[in-house]
Amino acid sequence: MKFLSGKPLLITDTTLRDAHQSQAATRMRLRDMLPACELLDSIGFYSLECWGGATFDACMRYLDEDPWERLRALRRHLPHTRLQMLFRGQSILGYRNYADDVVDSFCAKSIENGIDIVRVFDALNDVRNLEQAVRSVKKYGGLAEAAVSYTVSPIHDEAYFVRLAQELAQMGADSICVKDMANLLSPVAAYSLIKRLKETVALPIHLHTHDSAGTGSMVNLMAAFAGADIVDTALSPLAGGTSQPATESMVSALRDTPRDTGLDLTRLGAAAAHFRTVANSLEEEGFLDPRVLRVDANALLWQVPGGMLSNLIAQLRQMGREDLYETVLAEIPNVRRDFGYPPLVTPSSQIIGSQAVLNVITGKRYQMFSRESKAMLKGEYGRLPGEVNPEVLQKAGIREADRITCRPADLLKPELPENREKYGNLAQSEEDVLSLTLFPQVAEEFLSKRQKT
Ligand code: CO
User: Which H/E stretch holds residue 126?
Assistant: First the structure.
């Protein structure tokens, strides 16, 4: 097999964000990171993913840490490496759509406090949900990496993702990420998609996958053959399973090839030694269950993300109906089809999963809807990729005239002026106002505690 590129493969290491979010319930603390920063900074990664995603909420909710303070500290200790964050489009780091002024200010403050690259994605691949974030990141001098959320369905073929990537390039993205959050991208499909993207989009192509189904490192290797510019990996102590494949393995696999990363395995080993201690203590505290490292063949069989399967089991166990597991699994593809094939990623995975449970438990399809199901059908999260089943719309009591066809955030009024007033002296900075806007309850508790000490 021939390499379609002769350039060194660039590596984004995710140990400080996705790896512990995916393996250890997002519980890594700043003090677990700082001792390794000097070493990490000397390795020559393309970037370190270290902020955003669920870490912002987890900092305040579980770790008694100010996420903004964490970012500033990481910036001080990692002066030579690009810092990267994950950003959920119009939902920023939260679970609803925020107004444009919140998105704009969040981008400004992230960059001001130290972020270089903002990876922006939307669960439904509605490009309108990425517009404001991409515009703001560029306005404040950051690099906007726009992501396509990868999934498998009758309407999500290679041409769909190529078209989407071209739209994102036109929007002004600085690089394109193929975000395979559920490890559904097969190694051979990865080769074909990346090759096609390199032929049709004149931007760096960055691949993000997980190892949940056991194919993560094969996907990365095939992407390297096909000419991907950058791939995501995590240091070995927090790699594999629900996390990314290991950095050291990738570096070693490409040694003395045209795509040699040039990264030093000895330094990587020293950094890994530090994170092995961290991973061990996370395991002792009960946050890292070794079961997340097993290959999840059910994910391969049903093409649903591993996290969604464990949610389903928990939901059914609560109702004492674990016997319905297989029936619910068989119902998921039906619901997904009726809803226009949304990719299964937060929040659509929970919405589709819960609707499948309702359909099975009540013994009759669409007799009951959750509030979120109705909101999704109505278009509150954005445009669904395919056609929605009109019968289902009717059963949900949604008329064609009720459906939102504009960009959902066009219906939202600016939120910050009111919040700046409302939070008065609890918020000592614009950063605090943003924390309070995204997570009102959690941030209020965290900031009141800080005020008292
Ligand atoms: Co991920």
Answer: none
- Answer yes or no: are the C-beta atoms of 84 and 12 closer than 8 Å: yes
Residues 392, 294: one domain?
yes
Half-sphere exposure of residue 140, counting CA atoms within 13 Å on the CB side?
Answer: 23
Q: Tokens 């990346």 map to which residue?
A: 194
In terms of domains, do 429 and 306 share one?
no
Distance 14 CA to ligand 1 centre (A): 9
Measured in Å, residue 259 CA sits from the centre of ligand 1 at 24
- What is the model's pTM? 0.95
Same domain, 280 and 338: no
Compute CA distances 22 → 54, 74, 182, 214, 239, whole Å. Answer: 10, 20, 11, 15, 10
Asked whether residue 85 falls in the same domain as residue 184, the answer is yes
How many structural domains does the chain have? Answer: 3
Residues 330-376: tens digit of each pLDDT: 999 999 999 999 999 878 988 999 999 999 999 999 999 999 999 99
- The secondary element (H helix, E strand) that includes residue 131 is helix 128-139
CATH number at 316 reads 1.10.472.90
Q: Which spans in 63-99 are helix H?
A: 67-77
CA of 323 to the centre of ligand 1 (A): 31
3-state secondary structure of 356: helix
Instruction: Check whether residue 109 and residue 242 sit in a common domain.
Output: yes
Domain that holds residue 73: 10-284
